[in-house]
Each structure stands twice: as structure tokens, then as C-alpha cells.
From TrEMBL:
Protein name, per record: 2OG-Fe(II) oxygenase
Domain of life, source organism: Bacteria
InterPro entries xrefs: DUF2086, Oxoglu/Fe-dep_dioxygenase_dom
Pfam families to which the protein is assigned, alphabetical: Oxygenase-NA
Keyword Ubl conjugation found: no
Natural source organism: Lysobacter auxotrophicus
Length: 246
């Protein structure tokens, strides 16, 4: 089998896995708690192949050592354009599933911004505003590393949902290192949620706000995400942000 044929078959399988996700269930989960798990979005060979990219000298635009910036401990690298085929396909095929949810959320929160149905059209909006640097990233944590709670905002144009795919197997490749979300509601204490993931699972979550229905109407809650301390081993994650950066 030629490499080109294998690539086409892999791309078709990935597109089917995206299409076969329970998107109605994902929308309900996002509405209820601000995140949704997409089980088995990538298979093990795809996870290993993407994680192995981390040590390559090319294909990235920058490397961030988190401790230097007070972001936590560990490091990550932003991919350069053109993105790896799997990453590009995830971005372009998952976005159309999320755009209706993002539009519905903005309407509920009284935000005028609406998102086009195709990711390339949204990226064009970002690039015309000067946000042209790609934001998908590959993160690597070793024992003792963690990621402080944060929000991935890179400019004026922000798509309100993003995705992280766990590339390593908990309990085998690493211990600890749970994906954590916190939610701050007005006049209430912050609430934390630990999201259980297996290798290849993705979690879609709110970048910074989501609507919540209250007794006096809909209000915005503020979300942050991070990773708890890795107890042992090595953990790789693929981050898929749908807006580009300044």
C-alpha cells in the first residue's frame, strides 16, 4: 500500500470517528457542565505518532517552558503551518459540529458575534484581523509537572470552545496529571471538575465563558482549565484551539 493511499484511508477513518460521535449528547453535556468527552477520537497509533512529533526539530513555530512564565511546570510547542494532517483534519471537522453550539451560547449571553459554519471562513476572519499564527499545540509533562488554571485567549477573535486530546495512557504511561476545570459563578465559590480521560479521548470545553440559566435570566460563568501534578511518567496532550493568535 502506498503512503498516499494509507493517508487517505487514515483520513477517512478519522473523519468517520468525528462524524459518529454523539454530538447531541456532547451539546447537552456542554450546556450542563461546560465540557463534553469525545471517546476514542484518536486511535493508539495516531496518538503515538502525534506525541512522537514533539522531539522533531521542524514543524513548530515556538516552544514554551512554562516555569519561565509562571504558567506551571512542563513545556509545550505550537505547531507551524502547514499543520500535521491529523491535526488539521481534527480542526476542520470538529469545528462545524461546535459552531451551532457557540452561536447558541452567544445568543443566550447577549453577545452579537456569530460563527460561520466552515472553519476556513472563521480563520479568514482571524487572519484579516492580524491573528494569523496557528494555535494547535503539543504539550509534554514529566513527573512533577502541572499546568496552572488558565484561559487560551489570543486576540480579539475567540472561538468559545476548544479541545484537548490525551495522547498517553493513564496508569501506564503516567500517574496523576488529571485534566481539571473550574467554574466561577457570580457570588458563589469556585467549583472544580476533574475530567476522566483515556488515551485517544478528547474533551471539548468552554474557553472562558458559558451561559447558565438562573432565576433572573441567563448569566455568564467564568471557566479556567489546567492539569494537576503528574506523579510519575510522561504525559502528552494535543491542544486544538480553533482561533489563531496575534
Amino acid at each position: 500500500m502506498s503512503a498516499a493511499i494509507a493517508l487517505r484511508r487514515d483520513a477517512k477513518a478519522l473523519a468517520q470517528r468525528v462524524a459518529w460521535q454523539d454530538w447531541d449528547g456532547a451539546a447537552a453535556s456542554l450546556d450542563a457542565c461546560g465540557h463534553a468527552i469525545l471517546p476514542g477520537l484518536l486511535d493508539e497509533p495516531e496518538c503515538r505518532a502525534i506525541a512522537a512529533l514533539y522531539d522533531r526539530p521542524d514543524g513548530f513555530r515556538s516552544r514554551v517552558v512554562m516555569a519561565r512564565h509562571g504558567f506551571g511546570s512542563g513545556e509545550y510547542r505550537y505547531f507551524a503551518y502547514p499543520l500535521p494532517a491529523t491535526v488539521a483534519m481534527l480542526r476542520s471537522t470538529v469545528y462545524p459540529q461546535l459552531a451551532p453550539i457557540a452561536n447558541r451560547w452567544n445568543e443566550a449571553m447577549g453577545i452579537d458575534v456569530r460563527y460561520p459554519g466552515a472553519h476556513e471562513d472563521f480563520l479568514r476572519r482571524c487572519h484579516e484581523a492580524g491573528q494569523s499564527r496557528p494555535t494547535p499545540l503539543l504539550l509534554r509533562y514529566d513527573a512533577g509537572d502541572y499546568n496552572c488554571l488558565h484561559q487560551d485567549l489570543y486576540g480579539e477573535h475567540v472561538f468559545p470552545l476548544q479541545m484537548a486530546v490525551l495522547l498517553s495512557q493513564p496508569g501506564v504511561d503516567f500517574e496523576g496529571g488529571e485534566f481539571v476545570l473550574t467554574e466561577q459563578r457570580p457570588r458563589m465559590q469556585s467549583r472544580a471538575d476533574v475530567v476522566p480521560l483515556r488515551r485517544g479521548d478528547a474533551v471539548v470545553f468552554a474557553v472562558h465563558h458559558r451561559p447558565v440559566a438562573g432565576t433572573r435570566g441567563t448569566y455568564r460563568v467564568n471557566l479556567r482549565h489546567g492539569v494537576s501534578r503528574v506523579r510519575s511518567g510522561r504525559r502528552h496532550t494535543l491542544g486544538v484551539v480553533f482561533h489563531d493568535a496575534l
